[in-house]
Design a protein that fits this description.
Order of helices and strands of chain A: HHHHHHHHH
Number of helices of chain A: 9
Largest sheet of chain A: none
Strand content of chain A: under 5%
Radius of gyration of chain A: 20 Å
CATH topology of chain A: MetI-like fold
Oligomer: heterodimer
CATH class of chain A: Mainly Alpha
Strand content of chain B: 15-25%
CATH architecture of one domain in chain B: 3-Layer(aba) Sandwich
Mean pLDDT of chain B: 89
Largest sheet of chain B: 6 strands, mixed
Number of strands of chain A: 0
CATH superfamily of one domain in chain B: P-loop containing nucleotide triphosphate hydrolases
CATH superfamily of chain A: MetI-like
Low-confidence stretches of chain B: 262-266
Helix content of chain A: over 70%
Helix content of chain B: 25-40%
CATH class of one domain in chain B: Alpha Beta
Number of domains of chain A: 1
CATH topology of one domain in chain B: Rossmann fold
Chain lengths: 215, 266
């Protein structure tokens, strides 16, 4: 246990990096995912096809391969990105694919009458989407989006393979220097669980707030 | 005389797949006129209403609303065409059978959304208009409630307030009381009757004979995609010209006055 206590500063730094990776990638992925959803539901066949292809590729291939392509593959093309930005880029692109599908599901769940009511008053497509459809779709999609956030938090552990010193990497190095692998990984696992428990509570509060209009 | 025509529909066709719902419909509605559209299920009444607001794109024909014409025969998506359609929609309000209120917005927000975003009214002015309309429709105490807290009759009153807030020249009612029980329906019909005094052009798809008889200037009777006759209600209800209208009225007036079949809403 001494070794683990000694590694506390390292653990805290790893925790910080993990949370940073997860939150930044989620926010960026949410924005990108929203844009992909717009492309997906647009009338333009080109935009639509691009969105479908993007989602299919990013969801259909392992995240680990995407991470390694960004970190090891891009330098081959002359683009060199540091480990942490590489990880954020890969996580963002990956979660955007999932989040766009969550959001699209939300949009599709909204009754056609909502579009019609907005149309019938002369509201523009963009305005209808922003003011009428999106807020309702977001509420419908919140459980799925929350689940994505939690999954992403755990997926950030893959950044350890491209030398990012986050929670898992810290646990691994602490374990290997002390031969206390069980303690190190159990502790790291517990920390992930704690982060996600907090996220779940946040999600529940958010869902209740968004559901206020419906009770 | 052209400025007194609110709606002019020429040669309107609409098909869904292989089913032709509207087969060459011509209809002229004068400004301030109240027209009741009646007919059996599947006659095309609701489709006609939805075409008037371009919620459905007709396959052929022209629609003119207050001088703005959409030619549906060549439905190219041009910028000009979209502008005309939005212009028509801004001047015509639609009241739906199932209200279609926005569930995530409060009653007041439902009413002021389009006046702010479409008519570009300042928020404070839109709120003033909204409050006045809600007051007139007896909804002042519901102002900050969400639609989920309201009864069907209240929801339809909000929908009417929302329509009126656009200061429309034409209001289209698509079976506004079909989802309500008799008492609440009567309340909505009473409100609509009061609206006629304000000179707003109204086209109403309805099965309510007593209401149409009392309020409408004209009854348009449709069947199988055609307008079969247009008559003053006093003539239509006592002495319809077509056998089809006669048999329809016989069926509708039997029993409790409810329609023989429910209209397909879509």
């Amino acid at each position: 246990m001494d070794h683990l206590v000694l590694s506390m500063p390292g653990l805290l730094r790893g925790l910080g990096v993990t949370i940073m990776l997860g939150v930044v990638s989620f926010v960026l992925g949410f924005v990108l995912g929203g844009l992909i959803t717009l492309a997906r539901i647009s009338r333009s066949p080109v935009l639509k096809a691009t969105a479908i292809a993007y989602v299919s590729l990013l969801r259909g291939t392992p995240l680990l391969i995407q991470i390694m392509l960004v970190y090891f593959g891009l330098p081959q093309l002359g683009v060199r990105i540091a480990p942490i930005p590489s990880a954020i880029l890969a996580f963002t692109l990956y979660s955007a694919a999932y989040l766009s599908e969550n959001l699209r599901g939300g949009v599709l769940a909204i009754d056609q009458g909502q579009w019609e009511a907005a149309d019938s008053m002369g509201m523009s497509h963009g305005r209808s989407l922003r003011r009428i459809i999106y807020p309702q779709a977001l509420r419908v999609a919140t459980p799925a989006i929350g689940g994505r956030f939690i999954a992403l938090m755990k997926d950030t552990s893959l950044a350890s393979v491209i030398t990012v010193v986050e929670l898992t990497r810290v646990a691994e190095s602490t374990g290997s220097s002390s031969f206390r692998y069980v303690e190190a990984f159990v502790l790291a696992g517990a920390v992930y669980w704690l982060i996600n428990a907090v996220l779940s509570i946040g999600q529940a509060i958010l869902e209740r707030r968004m559901g206020r209009a419906y009770t | 005389m052209i400025d007194t025509v609110a709606i002019d529909v020429r040669g309107l066709h609409k098909r869904f797949g292989r089913h032709e719902v509207l087969k060459s419909v011509d209809l002229t509605v004068r400004s301030g006129e109240v027209v009741a559209v009646m007919g059996p299920s599947g006659a095309g009444k609701t489709t006609l209403m939805r075409c008037l607001n371009l919620l459905e794109e007709p396959d052929a024909g022209t629609i003119t609303v207050h001088g703005r014409t959409v030619d549906c025969t060549s439905p190219r998506r041009t910028r000009h065409r979209s502008r005309v359609i939005r212009d028509i929609r801004t001047r015509t309000a639609m009241v739906f059978q199932n209200y279609n209120l926005f569930p995530h917005l409060t009653v007041l927000e439902n009413v002021i959304e389009a006046p702010i975003s479409v008519r570009r009214l300042p928020r404070s002015y839109a709120v003033e208009i909204g409050d006045r309309l809600l007051g007139r429709l007896g909804l002042t105490d519901k102002r900050d409630e969400y639609p989920s807290r309201l009864s069907g009759g209240q929801l339809q009153r909000v929908a009417i307030a929302r329509a009126l807030a656009m200061d429309p020249e034409v209001i289209l009612f698509d079976e506004p009381v079909s989802a309500l029980d008799l008492e609440l329906g009567a309340e909505i019909l009473h409100i609509m009757k009061n609206l006629t005094a304000r000179g707003i052009t109204m086209v109403i798809v309805t099965h309510e004979i007593a209401f149409a008889r009392e309020v409408a200037d004209r009854v348009v009777f449709m069947d199988a995609g055609y307008i079969l006759e247009e008559q003053h209600p006093s003539v239509f209800f006592s002495n319809p010209a077509t056998p089809r209208a006669r048999s329809f009225l016989r069926l509708v007036s039997e029993g409790d006055g409810s329609p023989p079949e429910l209209e397909r809403t879509n």
